[in-house]
Structures are given as structure tokens and as C-alpha cells.
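User: What would this chain look like folded?
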Amino acid sequence: MGKIEHPYSNISIAFTTMHEKEKILEPLFKRNFFSKIIVPRNIDTDLLGTFSGEIKRDSDLKTALRKKAMIGIEQTGLKFGLASEGSFGPHPWIPFLPCNQESLIFIDVERDIEIISHFISTDNCSEYIEAEDFKQVEEFLIKIRLGEQGLIVKPSHEYIQSTEYIFKGLTKVKDVATAFEKIKLDLNAQTVFVETDNRAHMSPKRRQVIFKSAEKIVEKLKSLCPGCRAPGFDMTSFLPGLVCEGCGSKSDKPLKEVWSCPSKSCSYQEIRDRTDGIKSLDPAECDWCNP
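Assistant: Here's the prediction, encoded as C-alpha cells.
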């Protein structure tokens, strides 16, 4: 019997991006599915929210991802779409630890499937300084490796009047200095806000995190439902009951994984052992052994 072709082999996928993220994802999709990524023309994803703060994201992450992917699908007329969203802030599980979280969505309108991946990294370059004098900025430029990493220079919050004074994509010291002095002089500002430009084409470290998230979504797409062969068969929940190896009591920790088909027209599920291979609970984590 010959090899069965993947449902997404040789397809074209709309990727709604304006910051060169296609350069990160296209090699992965080409290598795994021989598929082609199409970037819609004349789109402005900044209208959905910006890192520099002048436009706030007006919806939750999943809604924002879906909205962005559908823009590309509708503009190109393709049946498949990709979109990416990133955020910088406190780690969701480790207090006070800053992180970069990158999320990707793949939408198949024909099969009515949505696949989402997330990747969190604590190795990020999201930095800022609020400075009165440009000499304070010079050490900051060395720290963030200006040139490889881009910068944004903008007024401190109380001075923001329009986007005219938000300077993005700066990679040269002279351009940073010019923007800094213009804000100081034109607005008579006491301080100026200088921060890393976290858009993908301006941030090497963020590109690495997007790549990791893309690897995860590719692996999900390669996982086919045993029932209907829809891509994206994945763990969706778990069954509690992991037994303590010390006292033998059941805990609320995951014992088994529930894997489900992403297609709304398929109800296929499997109960599987934990992917990490753990079969019992350490007594240090048991509520009875270590109350």
C-alpha cells in the first residue's frame, strides 16, 4: 500500500501578518506539508492592537487570533488561514518572572477546524527606560544590542498627543538620538520613553519564540484523528486520580489524558496514558503525606 498523503499537503495558506512572520513559518510548513504561505496585500494588523500602546487590543486572545486569520482568508479567498499574537508580561504560573508568550492559530474553514498553539519563553528582550538625558539611554542601547534589536522612542504617557511622536523601528544610535531630542524639544518633555520594538521583524528573540510556537502547531497538524483523519487530534482534557506512591490515595492530579478530534462533526476520543510517562504521585505533592 502506498503512503497516504496528509490532508494539508500542497495547500496554500493565508497568513495575516505585516511584520515578516512568514519568513519564520514558511520553511516549517514547506518542509512538513509542501504547503505555500500567502501574505495578503495591503493589510494593517496594527488596527487590531500595537505593542507601542497607541491601539489597544479590544478582544481576548482567541478572538483576536480568529479575527486576524479570517482577514487573510477573506481577502485571499483561500480555505486555510494562519495568524499570530504575542504578549509580554508576568509568567502565568511563576510569579514576578517576565515572559514572552506566542500563540498561533490555524483555521480550516472547509472542515470547520481551529488549531491553536502556545509557547512561553522567559528568555526575552522586552526592556525599557524612561530617561531625562540621552546619556542615560546610551548604556541601554548596548544592553539591548541595538542594530539586531529595534527600538521605539515615544513620549512618556502624560505627553502623548498623537502618533506623530511615536518613532518605531529604530536601529541606529543617531536615529534614536534624533527622536529623543525631537520629543524633548517639541513637547518640552521632562522624560522620554525608550523601549524595545517587540514587533517580530525588529526582535530576534521574539522570532525564536514564534518559531517554537510554530513547531508546536505543525506537530498538532501532523496528528490525524484515527476516526476521520482530520488534522489536529490532540489532548483536550485529563482524567484526575493519580495515585500517591507513598500512601496509595488518589489525588486530583492528572492520571490519564483525553485526546479528541477538533472537527465539530466528529466525536472520536481516546483515553491515553500521560505523555510525560508519570504513573504515580510524589509523596511531596500529596495532600495526605504532605498536608
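The radius of gyration is 23 Å. If you want, I can go into more detail on any region.
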